[in-house]
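Materials and Methods. Structural model of Adenylosuccinate lyase. The 500-residue sequence of Adenylosuccinate lyase from Mycena indigotica was retrieved and submitted for structure prediction as follows.
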Amino acid sequence: MEAFETYQTPLSSRYASKEMAHLFSAAVRAQNNRFSTWRKLWLNLAIAEKELGLHQITDEAIAQMKANLDLTPEQFDVAAKEEKKRRHDVMAHVHTFGTVAPAAAGIIHLGATSCYVTDNADLIFLRTGLDYLIHSLSVLISRLSNFAAQYRALPTLGFTHFQPAQLTTVGKRATLWIQELLWDLRNLKRARDDLGFRGVKGTTGTQASFLTLFKGDHDKVIQLDKLVTKLSGFEYAYPVTSQTYSRKVDIDVLAPLASLGATAHKLATDIRLLANLKEVEEPFESTQIGSSAMAYKRNPMRSERVCSLSRHLMVLHQNALMTAGVQWFERTLDDRRVCFLPFSNYANRRVTLPEAFLTADIVLSTLQNISEGLVVYPKVIARRISQELPFMATENIIMEIVKKGGDRQEAHEKIRVLSHEAAYQVKELGLENDLIERVRADPYFDPIKDELDSLLDPDTFIGRAPEQVDAFLKEWVEPALADPALQEAIQKSVKVELSV
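The predicted structure was written out as tokens:
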């Protein structure tokens, strides 16, 4: 078979959304969407050819085609028998369509090649799949934005190189995730809006068969291409094609999916690290078991799943690159036949494209589930801040001493010595950071002891983080999600429940 729907990742039946699973379903009787799309394409071709003067296409033929766009179980049986006999899926379905639309039997697929239905249908499904992902991503961004707003001002220790750094806030950190997701939303929209239609191009893209049908009338062939493209819901058709649409299109479609995988991997990794710190955790069910041996464990299984699938999603883009690079002349079958799967002649594209969309769909639904149940532990966060903040506050202490008339170099040396003593307590003896107690006990710092508490207030170390969150959500997130279709998706979305 030419079509790429014939492969189904095992994950899709359990975790993918019903819409995405249906779009790329492998179950034979669930493929009504694909074969119905083929029939719509044949109908559009017949309508356009009739409108442009092919009188052998009758009103009765068009009516019968319109009345039989969906396949019945019996028609699936007919198609299966025909394909077994003819060894050609498209011709099997041409025959099957003709049995229920007998007035059209002689004109179905008139002038077309198999890729008229297979490639044009692929483009329809790619565009639909991108729409699904755009909606799901919008919901995720909305959920995380609520989280960022809720914790906009909660101070937390920042990390560079996973070493303690200046403070940020829990909400500000979430905006870093959201910003990358906004870029992914932009990229998915660009890929969707850029998709064209293969159109009516013939066997090797020269439109020779249609030129013959219209007795050498080039204008009518041009009109046919444009009319079928419009009837099929596309703004434009690719100006030139070979037998197929260029496989570089697949590269352009899978690139933003791979980029989304990178974003998801980083986000989920951050949550896994925060779970280890016991500062933020993904949802954990009351009856969930983290380990068969270690009953106390709360493994970040959802985030681990996101990382695992995201790696796979990032790698799939390489397949599209390699497939496009080996398309000889007008087309070859490197994207179609492979022999290492003993149970069928599966195709590279027919594995890669559905897997990419199903995987991206599962990644987004899992992240939505995580975002809807993130648990924050402010007291743990505050305790970690208290362990590190004294060292970070040393510059403020020095500056305050200078304000009181002290010598900066002398103050710096005093703080340096006390800091090393406190570090010894922490690193060598495993005790708490007692730098501030040492400062309080040293008479040199008597002039600023009343200001020490204010100098150690975490809220004074977070800069403009809360204001940055507010501005980011208002100026960037709200406009990005303002589209009515995205708002409708957000309003209709329900809480995602996942088994672990």
